[in-house]
# Entry
Amino acid sequence: MTLLSALVGLALLLSATVAFGVFIQWRQGRPRRHIAHEVIEPARLGADSLGSTATLLQFSTELCSRCPGVHRTLAAVADGREGVSHLDIDLTHRPDIAKHFHILQTPTTLVLDRAGVVQTRFGGVPNRDVLELELNRLTGETAHV
# Structure
């Protein structure tokens, strides 16, 4: 192997690693709507009921540094909308739930409709404006400009 071919191989590996990192960063906080829809039973999560319009379901852990900020944002959004509730599930001692919902990072937020069907999934910190748009889409409201 020559020095030139080793440098070319190293440059290709570095380029692929950077491209993968940029792609992962781009996906953070973006809504995913093409997900396997599942009806979530609130009792499985330790909750009494879901919101009458929608539910913001947050998965977090004890050591998550971004989770408290997301909790405040989701709670404020839910408090500002009638019929929307916010549930925060700590996965630290519930690996069964993390495995079932394929949670690979915290925070992860699911937007559920009134029946408990997963409509949207956010990995990482969701953008508040995008979250509001998702709730508008779900409830059929028009956005305020």
